[in-house]
Amino acid sequence: MRIATWNVNSVNARLENVLAWFEAEAPDVAVLQEIKCVDEKFPTEAFERLGYNVVVHGQKTYNGVALLSKHPVEDVRKGLPLLEGDAEDEQARYVEAVISGPKPVRVVGIYLPNGNPLGTEKFAYKLSWMRRLHEHAKGLLAFEEPLVIAGDYNVIPEVEDVANPEAWLGDALFQPESRGAFRALKNLGFSDAYMQADGSPGGYTFWDYQAGAWPRNLGIRIDHLLLSPQAADILEDVTIHRDERDKEKPSDHVPVVARLAL
DNA sequence: ATGCCGGGTGGAACCCGA
User: Fold this and answer.
1) Of A113, A105, A182, nearest to A140 (Cα)?
2) Between the CA of A8 and the C1' of B17, what is the distance in angstroms?
3) Which of A28, A74, A214, A246 is 20 to 30 A from A53 (CA-CA)?
């Protein structure tokens, strides 16, 4: 079973590329981020024609996530639980479902807050969102079942994950607090699928539209799939679909696909 | 990268992304 994550930077602006990729690759399950539309504007029928069950957690203009599955889905959750004292969260950044394939696997799609600029409410929101994810993930791990938390984490985990580290020192994606929270999440017992299956430096998943970042390969690795031990044990390979960044009207992120022996 | 690009909104100029 192949599970994909892709920040598409507007599903409707990207529809031609996205549908072509799904036709060619036909992942069993995919999570999309930054769909940038409400549920009613999501191209649900187009994905249904390709054989997908569609779960959308949309929002006008910003954010928005979706989960697509060729198998039936159960136990759908939209939105990350709040912690005590948290204010309501209006931002659509979390979707979760159990995929009822040959063997069940729980798949979570996240669009973790960017957090820039530092020293603002946005950075505080990023860190508080990561605390919420940490607590919820701990609960999911306790099921001791195959679990994949995939998405745009907006965290550069290590110096090997960025072409030009100096340029990112003042950025929320590369702060010690952000990297520490990602490491703490991983240390609950997750395996970073790319690091487990490949691990070579330069496995970038994002290149800025500006300043020739793509032709100069000034990328960062921020789209990750974290695997529970039961999922890590059956990981076969991980593929970063770099070619998508070279298409007409590309997203600034490319798809990442993990194959599990399910 | 101070926003050089790109998307959305709304119908110009501004917000947001990473």
Assistant:
1) A105
2) 12
3) A246
The whole-number Å distance from A209's CA to B8's C1' is 17
**Start-end of H helices in chain A:** 15-25, 44-49, 121-141, 176-186, 193-197, 229-232
User: Cis peptide before A117, with omega less than 30 degrees from 0?
Assistant: yes
Query: Would you mind telling me the total number of residues written for chain A in this entry?
Result: 262
Two tokens, residue A145: 């079942």
Please give the backbone phi and psi of residue A211, each rounded to the nearest 5 degrees, phi first: 55, 30
What's the pTM value of the predicted model, to 2 decimals? 0.98
**Rounded CA gap, A7 and A68, in Å?**
14
The reply to whether A222 has its C-beta less than 7 Å from any atom of strand B is yes
Per-residue pLDDT tens digits for A116-126: 999 999 999 99
Q: What is the pLDDT of residues A132-165, one digit of tens each?
A: 999 999 999 999 999 999 999 999 999 999 999 9
- pLDDT per position as a tens digit, A170-198: 999 999 999 999 999 999 999 999 999 99
Helices (H) and strands (E) in chain A, counts: 6, 14
